[in-house]
Amino acid sequence: MAKKSTTNKKKLRRRARAGALGRSKASGLDPVRFSLMAKPFGPVCNLRCRYCFYLEKDILFSQDADTRMSDEVLEAYIRKTIAATPAQEVAFHWQGGEPTMMGLAFYEKAIRLQQQYAGKKRIRNVIQTNGTVLDDSWGRFLAAHKFLVGLSLDGPADVHDHHRIDAGGRPTFDRVMRGMRVLRDHGVEFNVLACVTPESCGRALEIYRFFRDNGVGFIQFMPIVERLPDEAATQLGLELAVGIRAGEAAGAVRMTPWSVEPLAYGEFLTEIFDEWVRNDVSSIAVMNFEWALAAWLDRPARVCQWMPNCGRSPIIEHNGDVYSCDHYVYPDYRLGNILTDDLQEMIQSDAQCSFGEAKSKALPDYCRECSVLRVCWGECPKRRFLDTPDGQPGLNYLCEGYKAFFTHRGPFFKAIAQLIRAGRPATDIMSAEVIVMPHAHVSSP
Ligand code: SF4
Ligand code: SF4
Fold first, then answer.
1. Residue 313 C-alpha to ligand 1 middle, in angstroms?
2. How many CB atoms lie within 10 A of CB 366?
């Protein structure tokens, strides 16, 4: 093992000296785990959600007459992903834009290719959709091939429709709820991705109970944070600020009106946590809480934003171009192309390694000294555009909210972790009295 890793380091050093980025043939590098998310239709969608950060990227692909993924790219994506994945299970993530706009025939083709190249590996498909075009034929297909579906739904009709409108400006709530019924009728496994905006804040419990009343068992809350264009964005013809490199100063910051306020987001999480921890630990998985709990259990983080480093979740565009991350689809972050480059070489390239390592290397001292660093890790570098109180760049915009939430609800996470370690069900927390003091402890029920 040690010998293998030395060889690997030598290969990396050789490549670094040559300045190569995905130029060599089969890399021979020890493969690392990764998750490559596909955008089969590029930045194309039937909706026009006001907070979408992706549709404006069409300007970067204006030379492409058609942004549908070709058969050639699809084949290379599936073949190379299976070959480059070191684990026995290979996950394919389909995203957008709106991936269902590719039509069922595209995914039937994808399944055939997966079966052709899988060998002994197990294949899993995950699709993130706005749900508006799901009908019975989709339901049958998704169920037959055991897709896990992420459904974008922000809450009750007025919260959802405030931002999630279609290309004609019409509300979409009823169509999404119909899509959810299709999934349920066909027994498709799904979870809900709910974006958190200023319109959601102050209505946390109502939103949470709406999901609970509708039988949603898995929910993820995603804060919307976008800046108005900076100089780099203007140069590229974009209307939202370009993600900065971790540790860089952002200059003047102007937020979009649909961005959540940091403390309001912290309060949003707190209100939902308080309801969940009293009533629903056994029945509802709020992914934000599950991810946080990993830190108190001393387990590796489960999502990139809570990891010390990132860079293992690149994306592949419709034309085969591979970029560092969904939030960094800009020319400077293009790693190569699936048709011509080796996947492991792109993922382990110097460019991608520095991108991922910057997450911890560029942390400001304020974060390094923070009592909740072990769970937060400065969160996503895309949102690190504030200065710390003593003037260092690189503080996360949501810092205040995270600090408040993790500090005040940390004792509960600690108590749940203690229960799990003691071999007791986490649900015991619902009947435990957690005394929140400077040094919190949990007492038995
Ligand atoms: S930049 Fe943010 S979203 Fe992208 S991989 Fe890193 S933590 Fe994840
Ligand atoms: S809570 Fe704030 S200071 Fe603490 S690690 Fe997160 S971003 Fe940094």
1. 8
2. 19
Q: Is the CB of 305 under 6 A from ligand 1?
A: yes
Q: What's the mean pLDDT in 59-86?
A: 92
pLDDT at 28: 72
Q: Is residue 335 exposed (0-12), middle (13-18) or buried (19+ Cβ within 10 Å)?
A: buried
- E strand or H helix at 12: helix 2-18
Q: Is the CB of 366 under 6 A from ligand 2?
A: yes
Distance separating alpha carbons of residues 307 and 355, to the nearest angstrom: 13
Best probe residue, ligand 1, of 34, 53, 303, 313 (max atoms within 8 Å of C-beta): 313
Token duo for residue 349: 């390239």
- 0.90 exceeded by pTM: no
- Ligand with an atom nearest the CA of residue 306: 1
402 in ligand 2 pocket by Cβ < 6 Å?
A: yes
Q: Tell me: the pLDDT tens digits for 395-427?
A: 999 999 999 999 999 999 999 999 999 999 888
C-alpha span between 220 and 203 (Å, rounded)? 16
**Spatial separation of the C-alpha atoms in residues 27 and 400, rounded to whole Å:** 43
Q: Is the peptide bond before 96 cis (omega within 30 degrees of 0)?
A: no
Q: How far is the CA of 439 from the centre of ligand 2 (A)?
A: 20
CA of 359 to the centre of ligand 2 (A): 12
Nearest ligand 1 atom, CA 307: 7
What pLDDT was estimated at residue 245? Answer: 80
Ligand 1 pocket, residue 310 CB under 6 Å: yes
| CB-ligand 2 contact for 264 (6 Å cutoff) | no
Query: Over the stretch 4-32, which tens digit does the pLDDT of each residue have?
Result: 444 444 443 343 333 333 333 446 788 99
Question: What is the CB neighbour count within 10 angstroms for residue 311?
Answer: 23
Among the listed residues 58, 166, 280, 326, the single catalytic one is 326
Any catalytic annotation for residue 326? Answer: yes
pLDDT tens-digit map of 225-280: 999 988 888 888 888 888 878 778 888 889 999 999 999 999 999 999 999 999 99
pLDDT, position 194:
98
Kindly state the tokens that stand for 183: 């999934």
> Residue 227: what residue type?
R
In angstroms, the CA 416 to CA 189 distance is: 26
